[in-house]
């Protein structure tokens, strides 16, 4: 409704304005925020005979995939290029630049250690590099980052259980919980109930990807068996009215990543028909996120623009979604209120209502 009375913003004006609106991003994979430059450098280090052009060809080869499982293979191929935990210093630098570029003031990021542990790296060393870099980002930019360890569903229950045990032996204040990512078709949520229960009993928060590649039954299992506090994607919920009601009733937020969902094509084929509109209208706490910036060539601000220009959200609705990003996060209530207040203050410069 408000859309008709709002002045329509062009892309540049929109992006400049939304860059200044404080936002949280709560569904972002650390290993996917690595920049193309860093990947190219890692490829050339591994293959000293390659020039930049040859390295670019290699990136093109790695990035040829057409479904979620193909994407996961590419994801693992990029992780394979890391030589030591010190490589995370470069990845966190890329993360810092990404957060600054997109006006993100708080981030909860997934870090997936499985592939690195399989290389024989010491988890405590990985954690100390994470911690050092999170502190560095906050010191340099004031942006707070917290980590959710993706225990991973791709390699089975025992691997997830092992990852949790490693985490429990290496607790730090910057790691606040666990997530469940990876192949939803190969690792059904119901297998991981005891891992989630144990994590919560030790004070960790729990979230899980669900309804990205599998139907609403995966989301039901995730809220009933895993009892996850938030759902990553949750797109297949659109076809189950009872499930939508339940997500509203239990106030379980969705971490929606529109471009990623259009890529996966399982439940969304075009941006215009993305069910985030339905979720929002039905009262679910929806948030916008980029998921895997490097792989999908999309950043958080692009997703706000897509929601505005393609899906048809008004600026006022996008303000609510920006506020939701803090509401749905795991920061304390006082901090949430402070951030939401900051959104309001930044909103005063809204170019669509400015005279
Ligand atoms: Zn994800």
Percent of residues in β-strands: 5-15%
Mean of residue pLDDT values = 95
User: CATH homologous superfamily name?
Assistant: Metal-dependent hydrolases
Total helix count?
A: 18
Main sheet properties: 8 strands, parallel
Following the backbone from N to C, one meets helices and strands in this order, namely: HHEHHHHEHHEHEHEHEHEHHEHHHH
- SSE-based structural type: alpha/beta
Helix content: 40-55%
Query: How many beta-strand runs?
Result: 8
Provide the CATH topology: TIM Barrel
Distance between the termini: 21 Å
Main CATH class: Alpha Beta
Number of domains: 1
Task: Give the ligands present.
Answer: zinc ion
Radius of gyration: 20 Å
Shape estimate: globular
Strand order of the largest sheet: 1-2-3-4-5-6-7-8
> What is the annotated CATH architecture?
Alpha-Beta Barrel
Question: Low-confidence runs (pLDDT<50, min 5 residues)?
Answer: none
Structure, described:
- The protein has 355 residues and is an alpha/beta fold.
- It has a single domain (2-347), classed as Metal-dependent hydrolases (TIM Barrel, Alpha-Beta Barrel), CATH 3.20.20.140.
- Helices cover 51% and strands 12% of the residues.
- It has helices at 2-5, 11-20, 36-46, 52-62, 68-79, 88-101, 114-118, 123-141, 157-168, 193-201, 216-224, 241-249, 258-264, 276-281, 293-296, 300-309, 315-327, 333-347, and strands spanning 23-29, 104-111, 144-150, 175-179, 205-210, 230-233, 254-256, 286-288.
- The protein has an 8-stranded parallel β-sheet.
- Helix 12 (241-249) links the parallel strand 6 (230-233) and strand 7.
- Helix 2 (11-20) crosses helix 16 (300-309), helix 6 (88-101) runs parallel beside helix 8 (123-141) and helix 17 (315-327) runs antiparallel to helix 18 (333-347).
- It is globular.
- The chain starts with a helix and ends in an 8-residue tail after the last helix.
- The relative contact order is 0.14.
- The mean pLDDT is 95.
- GO terms for molecular function: deaminase activity; hydrolase activity, acting on carbon-nitrogen (but not peptide) bonds, in cyclic amidines; metal ion binding.
- Keywords: Hydrolase, Metal-binding, Zinc.
- It is an enzyme of class 3 (hydrolase).
